[in-house]
């Protein structure tokens, strides 16, 4: 049974890199352009991992993390967020919201998979 | 080695095979630009993959190889025997480098370095000749071989660790992948059952790790959880941990004190073997515990396994009698023992099965070789891929019987199915043909699919041939599926037909016979110019199945539990006798009343019991009289009088000595659906 990962980012190219990397590594990938879309897509569905950007239109990543953690089905689901080195407070905020870990941008597929190996199998 | 790496390893092996093929072609035609481009592309893919998946040594090597071919490609170095020789030696070394056996990879490193120097000289010489900056002299070769270090790690998560989605086991696993690792879980803080909160983390760990690693690498493992745990990482000034397993044994129960441990390990040093080379080899060997387990296999005479399986079957039958007996006697002690027996015999059964099963992967190498050889012989460019062959396991005898039919199918596919590169390009396909071997479980079956993207088979031509051969009459109305299945008819494929027909046909009746021999089925589906898919379906030949025991017309029947979706009790009025449809949870499901089908007499009952099973991706209901419960059925063959029926796969003796027939729901439905 392959694992399903949701990638939430407003940049289609970032979504594509993540999608390609994960699909090659044998994951099923769901995509969403912002937090609200993610919630709509996930509606009733469970996934094994959520990867989300923090800055997005309509609903940002931190709100999304909080929304997901409030749901029974996503209470313990691993959530990774994408961040840049300069966003130190944002990182703390996302961790506080219940994120499992992060990936620093820019990233290469290898880095993404390394981060993944810490939280899903 | 993680899954990504394994996946890449397979890909790398394919790439190396391609490289070998292309190099042979280059040797034959040294000026062919297309082949040179192809070789460069393969090297480039190998390099990219090696870098991405952490094969450092291979990355270093392929980088140099690629540099050489980059110059060849640009026409700065002519292709001569020297280059060809280097390419072939590289292929041999790459085969060793991309081997799961790390010892082998390790053993070729000196040769790799030698060849790298040769390649650097070639590249360097060219760089000087063309007046550009000289290539860097060979870098410090020892750079990659770091110093082995040993660390003590204390990892104590806060109770709230799970709440952000962390699984601490993945972290210890990741740590273990860095080197030789000794993990001591500490359970002393787990509270009493009643006061335990299942969403809190109580376990903590003492870990010792040794390898070519740095403090930062160890720390990096815990990067996401730093804030949520107590973490201590200390370097120990000792080495050779894996030699001291006896000494470490006591720490299973005793907390680690870094100072005492250091002293103990140091004083133990004298006993160490002096041959450091040997020690290194041992440590490398233990690098990955899983790999050891893989290598630690023994060969056993299969008759011994058969005997064990028989004994396990007997044990389970006896245990069923015991369970039945214990129910009639009101003794809590007896039922406790019986329950335990049941648990143990189930585990014993599963273990015994897992011993007799081997992954389909065992066959793949043979197929890869066949595809390569045949493709080279008939000058077609074909990639052979597999999916799921590592995880799909079958009985060894079944695997052996599958070899020949699959070889046959592959040969057909190569010979008749896949087109030549030129023809493929003309059709707008990629020049390289592809054959995919896909294996997966579904219900109580294993599916093996052989999918090619070749020319496909024209159903009209099959039909015409079948009519010509007198297999069907000219006005027969057949579905597409039925037409394709004509290919398997004996007498369909005479030599004349085969050469005429651009599809397959060579002895497909033999293929089918071989597969029916192991109780399997084979089907063919094809689309002209898109490709052909041959699906082999084999029942899991488990001689003991977890079953659902039911009663139909006062007889006991068992359905394999894995094929059962749900069981419903439905008011008879809700069922339509006319359309044979029942609405369950808002879904209209066709059903068959077995009691009626078997006896021809419809019973008057108010509430019907419906077992819903999966049949070819849809749900179908089977109406039975009574659900009796779960039952571990030991399958016994029915004997030769019943060999021509197929919807009963065997019989099983129940605890009270009576018989139950083990039914195959798929075949039952197929049978009644056809009537």
Structural category of chain A: alpha/beta
Give the strand order, joined by hyphens, for the main sheet of chain B. Answer: 14-18-19-17-16-15
Rg of chain A from C-alpha positions?
13 Å
How many domains, in number, for the residues of chain A?
1
CATH 2nd-level architecture of the largest domain in chain B: 2-Layer Sandwich
DSSP strand tally of chain A: 5
Determine the CATH topology of chain A.
Answer: Rossmann fold
What share of the residues of chain A does DSSP label as strand, in percent?
A: 15-25%
The oligomerization state is heterodimer
Q: Describe the main β-sheet of chain A briefly.
A: 5 strands, parallel
> How many runs of DSSP E, i.e. beta strands of chain B?
22
Mean pLDDT rating of chain B: 79
Count of alpha and pi helical runs of chain B: 23
Architecture of chain A in CATH?
3-Layer(aba) Sandwich
Just give the CATH class of chain A.
Alpha Beta
* Residue runs with pLDDT of under 50 for 5 or more positions of chain B: 129-145, 270-295, 494-506
So, the CATH homologous superfamily of the largest domain in chain B?
A: Histidine kinase-like ATPase, C-terminal domain
What descriptive keywords fit this protein?
heterodimer, A: 121 residues, Rossmann fold, 5-stranded parallel beta sheet, 5 helices, 5 strands, globular, B: 675 residues, 5 domains, 22 strands, 45% helix
Question: What does this entry show, briefly?
Answer:
The complex is a heterodimer of chains A (121) and B (675). Chain A is α/β, with parallel strands linked by helices and 121 residues long.
Written account of the structure:
- The complex is a heterodimer of chains A (121) and B (675).
- Chain A has 121 residues and is α/β, with parallel strands linked by helices.
- Chain A has a single domain (4-119), classed as Response regulator (Rossmann fold).
- Chain A has helices at 12-24, 35-42, 61-70, 88-97, 109-119, and strands at 4-8, 28-32, 49-53, 79-84, 101-105.
- Chain A is globular and about 30 Å long.
- Chain B has 675 residues and is of the alpha+beta class.
- Chain B folds into five domains: 3-142, Up-down Bundle (Four Helix Bundle (Hemerythrin (Met), subunit A)); 149-266 and 275-290, Alpha-Beta Plaits, CATH 3.30.70; 302-358, Helix Hairpins (Orthogonal Bundle), CATH 1.10.287; 360-539, 2-Layer Sandwich (Heat Shock Protein 90); 544-674, CheA-289, Domain 4 (OB fold (Dihydrolipoamide Acetyltransferase, E2P), Beta Barrel), CATH 2.40.50.180.
- The longest helix of chain B has 27 residues, at 302-328.
